[in-house]
Design brief:
Largest sheet: 4 strands, antiparallel
Shape: flat
Helix content: 25-40%
Distance between the termini: 44 Å
Number of strands: 14
Order of helices and strands: EEHEHEEHEEEHEEEHHEEHEH
Strand order of the largest sheet: 1-2-14-11
Strand content: 25-35%
C-alpha cells in the first residue's frame, strides 16, 4: 500500500517564481507488513531518517484523541481520593466514531465554557448497597470492581475503549462478569458510594501523554548485510565452523545452504545490529588488520515501523492521521517560503 503519493500542485497554490524541479526527487512509499486490531508493522522506504523520525514523533505527540480532562465529584466515600480517581479516569482511552476534525479543541471553541462541539459528558454513579441488593448475604460484604463498563456516555458517538483487541475481550468474557469487564477504576466496599460527572476534551500527546493514541511507536533501520563468499569460506573451513558462526546470531539471520555448502543470509529483517557475528569473525581472523568477510550497515532510506495503539484509534487511523499532519506541516513551510521569497523580490 502506498500512502505517500508524489506531491503535486494544488488548486489555488502558486509555484515559486523561477522555481525549478528538484533533482533526484524521492517518492516515499509505505508497505504494510502486518495490520491487526491494535498493532501494525510497516516499511517506509525512499526517504531519510529525518522524515521517518518526524512521522514517529507526530504519531506520539500530535495525533488528536479525546480524553477525560475535568471531573465534578458529587460524592466519594471510596478508599481512593478524588485525585487518584480523576487520574485513572483520564487515562481511559475513548473511542470516537465521528470525524475528529469536526470536534473543536476547547481552547479554540467560541462557546466560552463547554458545548457539544468541544465537550463530551460522562456519568459514573455507583452505590455498593444498590449493586449488592440481589446478591447472597455472604457476597454483600465483598468489594466490587468498578470498571469503565459503568462509565455512562451521554453522547452515543463516544464510548470508553474497554479493551484494545479481541483477545483481551475474549479473556475478559471468559473470566469476568459483564459488570467487571473493562478497565478497573476503583473498588467499592460495603457502605461506599461514588458519584461524579466527567468532561472529555480533544487534545494531543504534546499537551499531556494521556492524549497520545499509541503505547509504542518505534522504527528501526533496515539492515544491509553483504557477504564476501570467498573470504567467509576461507575463514569457515568446516561445517562445524559454519554452524558455530550461524549460532552466534540470536535472531537466526544466517543459515547453511546444503546445496552450495555456503553460509547465506536467510532472514535479514531479523537483524538487530547486535554485532555478535562480527565479533566472532574478528576473533577468528588471522590478521587483526585484515578486512572482515561480512559487513552490516544501516539502510539510509528504508525503515521498519512498529505501532501499538491504546484502543482510542486503530493503527491505520493513527498512521494515516500522522501522514496527513506531516504533509500539512510541510505544506505550511512551503507556503511560508513562497511568501517570503515573493516579499523579497518585491
Amino acid at each position: 500500500a502506498t500512502f505517500l503519493p508524489r506531491p503535486g500542485p494544488r488548486e489555488g497554490h502558486r509555484a515559486s517564481p523561477g522555481a525549478r524541479a528538484m533533482p533526484h526527487q524521492r517518492v516515499p512509499q509505505l508497505r504494510v507488513l502486518e495490520d491487526v486490531q491494535d498493532s501494525m508493522r510497516f516499511e517506509l522506504c525512499n526517504t531519510d531518517v529525518s522524515m521517518a523520525n518526524a512521522l514517529r514523533r507526530i504519531m506520539i505527540a500530535e495525533v488528536p484523541t479525546i480524553c477525560i480532562e475535568a471531573i465534578e465529584f458529587n460524592e466519594n466515600t471510596t478508599d481512593l481520593q478524588d485525585e487518584f480517581i480523576a487520574h485513572r479516569l483520564g487515562l481511559i482511552p475513548m473511542r470516537f466514531s465521528g470525524n475528529m476534525r469536526d470536534v473543536n479543541y476547547q481552547h479554540q471553541c467560541d462557546c466560552g465554557a463547554a458545548c457539544e462541539r468541544c465537550t463530551f459528558f460522562f456519568q459514573l454513579v455507583v452505590d455498593h448497597e444498590a449493586l449488592t441488593r440481589d446478591k447472597q448475604e455472604h457476597e454483600k460484604e465483598l468489594p466490587i470492581n468498578i470498571t469503565s463498563r459503568r462509565l455512562v456516555s451521554l453522547n452515543p458517538d463516544i464510548q470508553p475503549a474497554h479493551w484494545s483487541n479481541s483477545d483481551e475481550e475474549r479473556l475478559m468474557t471468559e473470566r469476568l462478569t459483564p459488570e467487571e469487564q473493562g478497565i478497573l477504576i476503583t473498588k467499592l466496599g460495603p457502605g461506599q458510594k461514588l458519584s461524579l460527572t466527567a468532561m472529555a476534551h480533544k487534545g494531543i500527546g504534546k499537551e499531556h501523554a494521556k492524549w497520545s493514541p499509541v503505547a509504542v511507536a518505534t522504527f528501526k533501520y533496515d539492515p544491509v548485510i553483504k557477504i564476501d563468499e570467498r573470504g567467509l569460506m576461507a575463514q569457515l573451513t568446516t561445517r562445524e565452523a559454519s554452524d558455530e558462526f550461524i549460532n552466534q546470531c540470536p535472531t537466526h539471520v544466517f543459515a547453511y545452504d546444503s546445496i552450495t555448502n555456503k553460509v547465506v543470509v536467510r532472514s535479514p529483517e531479523n537483524c538487530m545490529f547486535c554485532r555478535e557475528c562480527l565479533h566472532y569473525l574478528e576473533d577468528g581472523r588471522e590478521s587483526q588488520d585484515g578486512p572482515l568477510p561480512l559487513t552490516i550497515k544501516h539502510s539510509p532510506d528504508k525503515f521498519t515501523f512498529t505501532v501499538e495503539t491504546t484502543g482510542a484509534l486503530t493503527p491505520r487511523e493513527v498512521v494515516e492521521a500522522a501522514l496527513t499532519e506531516l504533509r500539512e506541516k510541510l505544506h505550511r513551510i512551503h507556503l511560508a517560503l513562497i511568501d517570503r521569497q515573493t516579499r523579497v523580490q518585491g
